[in-house]
Amino acid sequence: xxxxxxxxxxxxxxxxxxxxxxxxxxxxxxxxxxxxxxxxxxxxxxxxxxxxxxxxxxxxxxxxxxxxxxxxxxxxxxxxxxxxxxxxxxxxxxxxxxxxxxxxxxxxxxxxxxxxxxxxxxxxxxxxxxxxxxxxxxxxxxxxxxxxxxxxxxxxxxxxxxxxxxxxxxxxxxxxxxxxxxxxxxxxxxxxxxxxxxxxxxxxxxxxxxxxxxxxxxxxxxxxxxxxxxxxxxxxxxxxxxxxxxxxxxxxxxxxxxxxxxxxxxxxxxxxxxxxxxxxxxxxxxxxxxxxxxxxxxxxxxxxxxxxxxxxxxxxxxxxxxxxxxxxxxxxxxxxxxxxxxxxxxxxxxxxxxxxxxxxxxxxxxxxxxxxxxxxxxxxxxxxxxxxxxxxxxxxxxxxxxxxxxxxxxxxxxxxxxxxxxxxxxxxxxxxxxxxxxxxxxxxxxxxxxxxxxxxxxxxxxxxxxxxxxxxxxxxxxxxxxxxxxxxxxxxxxxxxxxxxxxxxxxxxxxxxxxxxxxxxxxxxxxxxxxxxxxxxxxxxxxxxxxxxxxxxxxxxxxxxxxxxxxxxxxxxxxxxxxxxxxxxxxxxxxxxxxxxxxxxxxxxxxxxxxxxxxxxxxxxxxxxxxxxxxxxxxxxxxxxxxxxxxxxxxxxxxxxxxxxxxxxxxxxxxxxxxxxxxxxxxxxxxxxxxxxxxxxxxxxxxxxxxxxxxxxxxxxxxxxxxxxxxxxxxxxxxxxxxxxxxxxxxxxxxxxxxxxxxxxxxxxxxxxxxxxxxxxxxxxxxxxxxxxxxxxxxxxxxxxxxxx
Length: 805
Known about the structure:
By secondary structure, the protein is of the alpha+beta class.
């Protein structure tokens, strides 16, 4: 066939002593104990990485193969320099088409604005020079496809700073109004090409991906990524290989990485944990990258290896870094849950999602109040405890305020003291102000703090006289640690600055360059967050139905149900006739989905839905659902809409399942069974918690007395005066810190409170809250509205008694 032989060794693990670990990995990856692994699939004991001497001794007779090995190595060492691959298309025609589209939209959006026209001309010139007009047009076609099928899509990241991106429908924010940098996205001085990240409704991202690949043909392929085992995945692999049961594995995995508990100090768990640590970071499999598509102007199989994948699409064997190294352009199509939520809610209410996204600058009073008070549970990008706290601290009222809060919440801002200086309103020290008097005015909107990545380039441009591209390149080099202080000193000397001024400027720029948040990215996220907040304020039932149907967010589903209830939304269990698989809104009420019901699968739901409508309970019982599933539906209240109580439905289910040929347990009993009233609210709430994971009847805390001295969450959310307080609630979220301390959010029927717990208190709180239905009583000091520092924790009412073994 014309192929030359190569010398190869079947390596499956590194050291000879790793054979046992490799066997565990092979078995555990298949969900099998080691004893059940097919010998043909088990790693061979000699499949370890050989030494050079061992390799040559074993293959010394294969001289032709060894010579080919050397030739191949030499060829790989002399791979020619990569060449950028422009996207498919014809450059001149693409430039003309892009100009027609953007110039046609310019007047309708910006009128006769001269700055907008000059900005557009500059961007078109830069894009044309780089031969990337076709790249923008590909995205324009993707967005047009999405619009035609009511799929929400919007650019994120630095691409949102492009006016061209705004005019072709990619960006939701105005780069001129928000002073967004085109150089941050497209820099003629950078060797690597720019890439555009497009957020897409996560529920329909795969549909868009398939369309884009089919449209581009062999000149595009998905980007691959190497998936590695993480802490819990490694433990699950070891547990399967050792024969541990699934329920036991789930329970143990939920305690990781807090492996200091006594259970981990006994065998075989201590050994299993050590094996899991050795497997952490080991490559598991190659998978499609969550968003990346590689593009070229020629069939990609001539540039990179191509293989199939489970999605049925071509997949490049290189990851995102390898694709860029080879000079290919990347097209990032990302599934975004927040857009799924917004799209569902707008579809339910008839609102225009893109109009909401692009008019976020004009927020109504109730939306501004919700943002400023941090009442943003259920709002994508700004619902975490840290983010809600920042919104309260900054008294956010506008899209720009939300963008600044998004930048401030990033870990680097806190680590470098930027957040503290922002709230102290002294971002620049006295010496910096004296040496560079123009900077306070330049950074006035951010209280003197270099908040965004673009701010570093802005200061470099102002102080050093660099153009946009040069300033952004300096920022990039500072971020990557490639710029030295001597380089900056030379630029300062060229501007006539003394040594002290260059030293202060170096300290300022190098201290901020590593952690800044891209401003166009922050503004795009802020636009989505403001649109989502508007939906929550105007249509809370539809909004939270969309949140739950889209898979939730930062919190568990019960948190969203309680937040909806606090906003006056009526909740309902899914009915046998009206309930959907996912959460929905019916007649202004939020209806949980059948996917919440314990023990019910999608096949069960499809069987139920196919027989609708049901005039009586008998029709449901005849659909062939398992008695256990029917009993769960009855206890949860799914038969209520037929006028049948839970006890009535249960009796009929037991009657039917207990029938024998020639004998009817209750003779001619009619549907429904008489004389069986429904359960009282307390009992219903308990059943719903067990069967749905949340109470639809009412907040569980509302069915018992509040512990003495505890304040409601609503009052604590408004309490700005420091002082000793006690609160009671259900743990809704927690986050561990490296020193063993952590944050915890407690929720009651009126609101939520966020608390910091020192290590000893946090460990006790985690143990107390491990069982479903637990509540906690925290005592401590109020720091500011909605935030306390706890110094003790106790189990509250409703907490289950400890299990006795």
